[in-house]
Fold:
Amino acid sequence: MNVKSFFFVFILFVVSALDIFATNDGITGPTIWQDGCGTCHGNQNTNTTITIEGSNTVTTNGTIQLKAIITNTAPGLVVGGVNVTVLNQLNQIQPGLQVVAGSGTKLVNNQITHTAPKIKTDDTVKFDFEYVAPATTGNVFIRVAACMNVNDGNATNFDQWNRLTNPFIVQIIENNQPNFLLKQTSLNFGTVTVGTTRTQQLKGVIKNTGNAPLTISTTNFTGNNSGEFKIAQGGLPDSPIEAGDSADVILEFTPAGSGNRTAILSINSNAAGGPKTLALSGTGRQPAILQINGTQFVVGNANVGKTASKQFVGFIKNIGQDTLRITGMGFAGNDETMFSITSGNAPVNILPSDSHAISVSFTPSSKGNKSTVLVLEANVTTPADILFTGIGTEPNLRITPTTYDFGNSQVGETKTQSINNALSNIGNGTVSINGYSLAGGSASPFAVLSPAPFEINASGIQPFVISFTPPTSGDYTDTISILSDNPTPVRLIVKGKGVQAGAISLSSSQLNFGDVVIGESAEIPFTIRNSGSQPCVITGANAVGSTSFALTLPSSPTIPPNDSVTVVVKFTPTVEGDAVTTVTATIPCDQNSPFTVTASGTGRLPSSVVEGFSGSTISVTPHPIQNNSLIAIQSVKPMNQAIAYIVDVNGREVFTIAIPAQTQQFSFNWNTADSRNSVVTSGIYTVIVRDPMNILFVKSISVIK
Structure:
């Protein structure tokens, strides 16, 4: 045999503690074989044994699968590692090693080493790898060195390593025939519902590692449940598999019963070594069974255009063994548009013995009984009719009376009124009162005291409490709208008048004119004072009684706040004797309105005028007198020793002034003060001009305070 045709494969397993980072990811290189594992793991010990499993024959360019097994029964040694080197007989490193996925190894510089220490199981640590032969024939040798580690991070604490002294010899032969490699030897289909089929595709599971085409001839299923497994249509290659190529196998499993199901698939070919076998298994499970909890489901009553909802707990239950899959759920027929699934809609999976709840809403578009059918789409047979019903209702809210008048209410005070049985629902559906709205908004003197929200059932009645708080005097009107789900608006018109108590006062309630010469006039003013905070209006004033009295009203009927106006009563007797009249003033801002003043006087015949003074006059400017007026005397001839007097209605002199002798014109100012310098009160006063013997002429004047 040519020396160059020999390869020496050197496999080194180095197992170390997880926290010794020097060997966590393995060490490669021929020095490992020369020195053993002693550099990091103590001394060589024969308690660690090494074996290699796998074929010792491979065709040129072919691949064999190998497993290195390290065994040590010492209980304290828990992890291990590996290093694999391919050498020829001259101890030269050669290519050809291949990493097997999931084996915990890596390829570095044509050598395989562990990626991390592997935990011992059943006193062994195992590493899988592949070897790809070259294109030339010959023999190769495999040697192994291995270590078990106590996992304490100390290389001298009981770590044990050893070598595979006798090499594992692999013979490389000429490849002139197919070689059937089945990469997988078992397949579990998992759990499958009885009567249904699950398909599994094993990609590239058949590989031709030989030099000639591989032909699959026959297949055979054996075992307890062989009839439940089969090859899917097109599941095996129908043409030869060329050298180096792979092929898929597609299998089907249709369990006929529940529980574990097994079979063996044998695949025959034109390759040497007999048929290849694949162990098949799966679990059969009985199907899902759908159960509806009831036959008719009532959502409830709802007003037209409103929504009622209800949750149906445990509506669907799976009493079978498989998962119940609801893929579709919806209403159909009759009033389907009025019903809707608001929660729990498809798709949904229900495990065995579990239940599923749904919530359904009902929004009727008209009154009356409504119904529809729920249709389910599932992986099982579903009931034909699942009936849902509801009733469309409609309230009919009324308010009685439609107008309410509070009458007079004192300004700033609140008058509350409860109207019993004011709100009534004469419909067949519940009405929801959500609140109230006043046309006057927040400035309205009216308010609704009935709490909201609340409901009035069919044929129900409810009192209605409202209040009126007038801010000022005057008439008020507003409209209260009842905010509800009633089909038509419901409104109440409210009225009231604001009045004040004690806002208006009069300066006098009795006016006495005394004696007034027939044909002459006398005037007495009185004041009307508004002590309130809002304007007041005189809406009417008249005198009832003797026609000898007349009224003079202020130019504006409005009395501003904290102000007053003057009303003048004039007495012009036409006949001799007493006269009386009642003056009435209507001022609605005060609840004491109307107000009255009694005026009285006596008409008398005029006194004879001193001869020669007929036609003399007395004028007062301004008049009536408030604070100060000019009194002018015009005599038709000179006066001698004349005196001017001002007297009140009781004849008391309140002012006196002498008139110079031989004077025809004389004037003076009077500030309405008497001889004691006290201001006189409002009333009728008389200016008298006389000499020591006679009253020459007189004049009645008015004082207003």
Residues 1-23 have pLDDT under 50 and may be disordered. The chain has two helices and 57 strands.
